[in-house]
Amino acid sequence: MQDPNPHTARLGDILLTYGVWEADQARTASSEADATATGAGLLAGYVQGMSDLCSPLYIMCQGDEVRTFWCFVGLMERTKSNFYRDQSGMKTQLVLLQKLISIMGPALYTHLERTDSLNLFFCFRWLLVRFKREFTFDETLALWEACWAAEPHRTGAVEGEWGLSASFHLFCALALLELHRDYLIRYLQHFDEILQYFNSLTGEFNANAVINKAEVLAKSFAEIVSHSRSQGGKREAPEEEGKGKEQEQRDFLHILSSDELRFLL
């Protein structure tokens, strides 16, 4: 029976074509090193969640399948590791987010640790499909554009022209947590309560508030890294709101590896 919605069929064709194209890229990888660097061969065809990333592009391209396909290829270059068979990409991002929380929000980190929530499973969907299911359609597009605009320049960059972060979506996730930090700490004492709380807010998050908070966090993080390097890795932890007491110094540069820092800056 023919699908009554032709757009669903076209979207399926785009995703199927991408799977074939990606498999061909894996076969033609010139070396094992190239395959490792590009993630070739680590995808297992279509994976649930890819359609969440493709459908907004299809709408913005006004149903043009060719334009949508190549836009999707570009987006998957940024998000392909989310769909690796071994889930290594998602594990890496969740670990990085956990470390960001420990650096930028020690009180929140302590609360998540106390409530057995440091696995951050309630953030898994946020990162997997770049908040597509958390925000309304228009706000999802605004958030995606902010993440792309925050990326460092890839070519021709000079000092002073770098973006906010290569992984601004992680700062958006941190911003979401920080915006709800006081409520989490005061009222939610178990992992299932935190999971249920964030699920209940789906579609009600404010993209502008998240973007603005993420921008502040990304800039603060960059300043902390710069200061820590100048101090040989020592820095003062950021003060929590409502607390005037200085935090103890931390050996900050040992929390994140050089590769992790490059991923975040």
Can you walk me through this structure?
- This protein has 265 residues and is mainly α.
- The protein folds into 2 domains: 6-83, no CATH class; 88-264, Cyclin A, domain 1.
- It has helices at 6-27, 32-38, 50-60, 65-79, 88-104, 106-114, 124-128, 137-149, 168-179, 181-187, 191-200, 207-230, 258-264, and strands at 234-236, 249-251.
- A two-stranded antiparallel sheet has the order 1-2.
- Helix 5 (88-104) crosses helix 9 (168-179).
Order of helices and strands: HHHHHHHHHHHHEEH
Total tally of structural domains: 2
CATH architectural group of the largest domain = Orthogonal Bundle
Large-scale geometry? globular
CATH superfamily of the largest domain: Ypt/Rab-GAP domain of gyp1p, domain 3
Helix and strand content put the structural class at: mainly alpha
Largest sheet: 2 strands, antiparallel
**What would the average pLDDT be, to the nearest integer?**
86
What's the total count of β strands? Answer: 2
